[in-house]
Amino acid sequence: MGSTHLKALKNIPGVEVAAVASQDEQRLSGDLSDIQGNIGGPGEKMDFSGVKKYRDAAEAARDPDVDAVDICLPTDQHAPIAIAALRAGKHVLVEKPMALDGAAADEMVAEAERNGRVLMVAQVLRFFPAYRAAAEMVHAGKLGPIRSALFRRRCAAPGWSKWMQDSARSGGGVFDLLIHDVDFALHLLGAPAAVSAAGYEDMPRGIDQISAQLWYPQAVSVTVTGGWHHPKAYPFSMEFTIVGDAGTLDYSSAGRPLTLYRADGEEQAVATGDVDGYWAELKYFVECAGQGRKPEICPPEESAAAVKWTRLMVESRSKNGEKLACL
After folding, report:
1. Could you say which of 3.40.50.300, 3.30.420.10, 3.40.50.720, 3.90.70.10 is the CATH number of the domain covering 2-122?
2. 50 φ, ψ to 5°?
3. Helix 173-189, helix 129-139: angle, nearest 10
4. pTM score
5. pLDDT of residue 42
6. Residue 297: other Cβ atoms inside 10 A
7. How far apart are CA 316 and CA 244, in angstroms?
8. In the prediction, which pLDDT does 72 show?
């Protein structure tokens, strides 16, 4: 994600990358060519000749010449580095998941409020064209009352980042991967009354799967499912199906563009544009930081809620599908 964010930042007017931080000397040299990921493209070589280089992320976050910090570190470092940056008077963009638990996420939100700084979590689905268009249609009532929704996200267990396979650092594959879909469900429908889940985890073999039900008082059926399917070969995909009285919205990254299947039986392609979601996300954060305004498209309180509900989802899986609620 650090590589992906840097590529996006190069194309945003008025942005200067003043410093980079890494414990990897190859990364600090600007050579990101061996970086991999599910999406965002491969890494590349960058010119860091005029950029300050730090081996300590907390030190970089306190740099007096820096206005904003973009945190693309392992999840267990998100909260401490974000809090250090906010206390140093920096605006903060932090990769998802926001933190490893709800208490740490709430502490980040409180610290941003205390210091009058902008805090935003990189829940990039809110900026991906198909997901953004779907959200606009749902919020505008174009589907009528929502009756059911399915959100699915799958990939191979990542072989390029060993820390991700350490659940104490990443939260595990389900937590790291499906935080996107829980956040998007909350964005569309608000908080559920409870969550239950079933699935299977075998981290040494690269398996971490779940099928979760978000329980809404209006009897809306919402399923979030997916996870890691063995290492290396299994392809990444994400998809959703949203059913309302006025029609069904369907999308898959594996080849089905966003389409509305209307209640009258007609099929309608939905225009989404081809804006890069990462660029849109970074541009929006830069605008909010520059103007000192809260990121209403992706407020940190909602990102904290996504952490809490995803944590409950994983907990329910460990308790044989027990229905759990945020108190």
Report:
1. 3.40.50.720
2. -105, 20
3. 30
4. 0.95
5. 74
6. 18
7. 28
8. 96
